[in-house]
Write the structure tokens for this entry.
Amino acid sequence: MRDKYEAVIGLEIHAQLKTDSKIFCGCSTRFGDEPNSNTCPVCLGLPGALPVMNRRVIEMAARAALALNLNINHESIFSRKNYFYPDLPKGYQISQYDQPFSERGWVEIPTSERNESGHATEWQTKRFGITRLHLEEDAGKSLHEGMPDASKSYVDLNRSGVPLAEIVSEPDFRSSWEAYDYMQYLRRTLLYVGVCDGNMEEGSLRCDANVSVRVRGAEKFGTKVELKNLNSFKFLQKALEYEIDRQIAAVEAGEKIPQETRLWNERESKTYAMRSKEEAHDYRYFPEPDLPPLITAEELIQKLRAELPELPEARRRRFVEEYELSFEDAAQLTDSRGMADYFEEVVRPSGNAKAAANWILNELTRELKSAGIDIAHSPLSALQLAEMIKLIDSGGISGKMAKDVLIRMYQSGRPAEEVVREIGGSQVSDEASIRAFVDQAIQSNPRQLEQYRGGKTGLFGFFVGQVMKLSGGRANPQVVNEVLKNALEG
Amino acid sequence: MELKRLTISSLHNRIARGEVKAADVCRAALDRIERLSELNAFITVRADAAMARADEIDHAAERGDKLPPLAGAVIAIKDNMVMRGVRTTAGSRILFNYKPPYTATAVDRLETAGAIIVGKTNLDEFAMGSSTENSAYGPVRNPWDTTRVPGGSSGGSAVAVASGMAMGALGSDTGGSIRQPASLSGVVGLKPTYGRVSRYGLIAFGSSLDQIGPFANSVEDAARILGVIAGHDPNDSTSSNVEVDDYVKSISSDVSGLRVGVPREYYGEGLDVEVKGKVEASIMKLQEMGAEIIDISLPHTEYAIPVYYLIATAEASANLARYDGVRYGYRAEEASTLKAMYSRTRDQGFGAEVKRRIMLGTYALSAGYYDQYYGKSQKVRSLIEGDFRNAFAKCDVIVTPTAPTPAFKLGEKTADPLEMYLSDIYTITANLAGVPGLSMPCGLSSSGLPIGLQLIGKHFDEATLLRTAHNLEQALGADFTPPPVM
């Protein structure tokens, strides 16, 4: 039944720009401070106070816009969006409406449906349009839980005036996973260009979705429903999935979908109607008379464009081509700019991209994850890891030993050579020493030797194991292979 | 001591020389405020703070310190400009208990320049009105005839200066709120170019029109006050970087060769004959002093009132949204839901005229009406700006009446808002175009009421306005001291 229908999804994402001070005053944007401690007449909306644009916001917004291929308007206009709410101290939000900061952007990214166990089924590159990125001020926060008097409402205005970039997509997503992959990519990109910390739990990245369904192939959109409260990637995907099913069922049952706003309830895994179209606000936008038009100089745009780092998707593609990595490995390595930088810092001196990818994505990631450390602050430096890889490649240590070496390097911060010496010398590669181990292994196991020579060549591995055991794991496996083969067939 | 007989510049020198004590001047002002309390010019008087400030100035003078330019000048502030720790009501019940934590830039600059801020003056609620009858703290009466209004909305400031309670005052002018009460009360009032004086700390009414300016008993004193408050303020993004002229110096030049424009649209129907006569006589005086009189036209004048009442109310509907009872000011206590708290707070906190304008402005911005009302108004506003651009290609300054009639009776126009709105018909255009306007007394009516004349100048050319006004003031030589009250 679902195949008969097609979902149409658009996303509105609010990203807090990580400036030190607010968009229209000098107050700190720090999260988690004593309620209402980071406030002043401007962000409290006191009578007579006036907004003054924070120039740093323009730079950050421009970096985000350029990373999303948006066209930055030379002149953009602030508008007042009027509505009453206790966390909105002026009774209007300074936002942008006509002539936003930037318009007409896009991303071209891999996306895939997922199977039952959550694995991607088939990655395809798709292009998604971005309508606009505009600037606005954040509102404060209503506090309910843990307050002294449960019968009262409390308001914290520390967040009031924190700069936001609202990024509105075109209705280009046809499934929950496409929306999910886009949202992931958007977050990654904002982190890459250093304008947002991407923390959805603290609300520095928030997402609303518009969803409708239509019979596949139909031109006209169905009635759209706005979904709110999607404050994690998981919620976004689950809520969309739920909503698509709900709408299809309604249409199948011959019901009309009302235009409304619905809230995702995580506990019940359902969406609930919050307000209908009739109850929707008339925001009565008009140009903000307290702020002159925002001019973004072409020279600034050129400068910022030149300074833009390589973006995640371009980097992922390059990793596949240049380092011959698999799609998954390249995707994982470019997930954060820190990880990708680290990888390339290992590859450069070691010359071994495959090994670098494996060590980073397995052992190192496991260690960092369990310690909760970001790769940018890894106790094992990229250069140290490169040295270790070189030691493996030159036969200095075995891969097996290396795992132990890596953990010790990670814990002590000491170079590979030193760690290897400490744990009992390096790999044994000289033939004479290895022949001694081999001879001993053969002599101790006459029955197996007979069986081997009688044609049961599968026992080769048994002898390798014996040699390794005798050498304390230090024998170079390649040399062992050669010497053992000669001895057994001797 | 009579404040009406003092000028700010002479006072400065006399205090410096030790001939006069700032404390005596301040005490005289406070006595006068007390004695004429029936005029209801002040909402808050800062008697102790003002006396303390006067003593500081006297001590500085005794030490022989160089005194700042407004040293000892007793100044009153319209109660829609915030002052740290001083109750600021905007004439509204909704701010009956509001004590701001910061000071408006213009007020701060006055204090830094040595002025003594004696108190906060009465006004039409949120500066919405032309008679100072729309105040939650009662109407202000005109010292020339206490059965009459002083004009508005800065009626308290105009009366404070006219009746010698202060040597100067600050008002705010959105559609004539400095010039019209200056005219009706017989003092000098100046609305500077939009952006000339910082609006930081001025409680907003129509943000694209509001401008702070001085009231004074002489053009020279107005020039002195303007010189102190004018200039760029980093806290107001709409304040201008244009250099501030030396206004006091500029008034000493004569007016020979000055091109004075007389717009025919300002002398038609609705203009009182006596007002017309006095203004025309003043134009003759200017001509006698060597000015060239030029007939000009401002053809879009007739649209000014509707355009103004759409733009100002639209902006006001947003500016006044913050008075919701959540954070400060009046809050209706009996409400049980958020919505009820909002509507009861605003219903009980705002007066009738304010509610009327909020509704009008909300309507003008509503979905489906925006283009027709607000959008169209902005277009016509550009045409009015164009009128002035064209006119100032031909002349240096424009002369008009300030108000169509002298002061009217209390209650005379309260029943008919449209009638009231018409009293700003000659002043509104300057706000829409952003150009400076000055009102000065130019004579008395047969019933002894002051008549005001308006001078309108080019953007940031307050110097020419002040020079013209000063020359005319000297030529007229009249004394505009109201008769003793009661």
User: Anything to note?
Assistant: Residues 286 and 356 of chain B are 42 Å apart (CA to CA). The first strand of chain B starts at residue 42 and ends at 45.
